[in-house]
Amino acid sequence: MSRWRAVTSAVVLSAGAASLATGCGKPPDTKSEGSVLEALWTVVKGDSARVRGPATAEWCDSLRLVQIQSLRGDTGIAIVLYPVKEFGAGRYPVVPPDRADSVPPAAAVAIRWFAETSIRGFQGDSGEVVVREDRPGAYAGTFTARARSVTDGSRLTLSGSFGGLTVRPGGRRCVAKPASPDSGRGVD
User: Fold this and answer.
1) How far is CA 60 from CA 12, 105, 135, in A?
2) Each residue of 144-162: pLDDT tens digit?
3) How many beta carbons lie within 10 A of that of residue 37, not counting itself?
4) Beta strand segments in 4-47, E
5) What are the Cα distances from residue 100, in Å, to 19, 123, 136, 156?
6) In this structure, are residues 23 and 134 in contact, taking their beta carbons and an 8 Å threshold?
7) CA 129, CA 15: separation in Å to the nearest integer?
8) Which pTM value belongs to this model?
9) For residues 138 and 168, what is the distance between their CA atoms, to the nearest angstrom?
10) 101-110 pLDDT, tens per residue?
């Protein structure tokens, strides 16, 4: 996979995490009855927390990824799935976001919440997302991940499930940037 595509995918996950962090992301489609994501996490040497909220799933054809997102209050979770060819049921190993698009099938996971005095953000670096088709066109699954803080190196474990997701086409933000003129020439 090209270095440019790897950078692009990291930007997509970072943009998803940034929209989660600012609360300015697209609100979940509450008209999708039964679409839900639930997660439990434990910060190493810290507290545990749980969240359950409505979820969305969008297919970005130009980048060949599915983004599952849930926002509940000040907490947000994003799971980006990179299928080999087409999205479907299967196992997606969690890898660091900057590698996820170059080793399909793969998943990138991000979570953020407001702590007492700061925003805590974590990116998954190991684990697995398992997707199954509940009924034609509706997906459910489970996930486990170990994640590292994007600011201080602390770790957490994350597990959860999602269900009732109908994958919809991605919106305006789902646009691949054209390759730079220097791509493919070994220029960094």
Assistant:
1) 10, 15, 22
2) 999 999 999 899 999 999 9
3) 28
4) 36-43
5) 19, 12, 27, 20
6) no
7) 21
8) 0.78
9) 11
10) 899 999 999 9
- Cα 16 to its chain centre, rounded Å, is 7
pLDDT tier at 14, thresholds 50, 70, 90:
very low
Question: Rounded to a whole number, what is the largest CA-CA distance in the chain?
Answer: 49
Task: Report strand pairing: 36-43 vs 106-114.
Answer: unpaired
Q: Which of 148, 169, 165, 166 is nearest to 157 (CA)?
A: 148
Instruction: Specify whether the CB–CB gap between 13 and 110 falls below 8 A.
Output: yes
Question: Cα–Cα distance between 94 and 145 in angstroms, integer?
Answer: 7
d(CA 130, CA 79): 12
Across 7-15, average pLDDT: 39
Angle (nearest 5°) at CA 132 between 127 and 134: 145
43 contact partners, CB below 8 Å, separation of at least 6: 154, 155, 156
Tokens of 80: 């980006």
DSSP result, 168-184: EE--TT--PPPPPTTTT
- Report the distance separating Cα 108 and Cα 126, nearest Å: 9
Residue 21 neighbours by CB under 8 Å, 6+ apart: 76, 112, 119, 121
- The predicted-structure confidence for 120-142, as pLDDT tens digits, reads as follows 999 999 999 999 998 898 999 99
3-class state of residue 72 by DSSP: strand
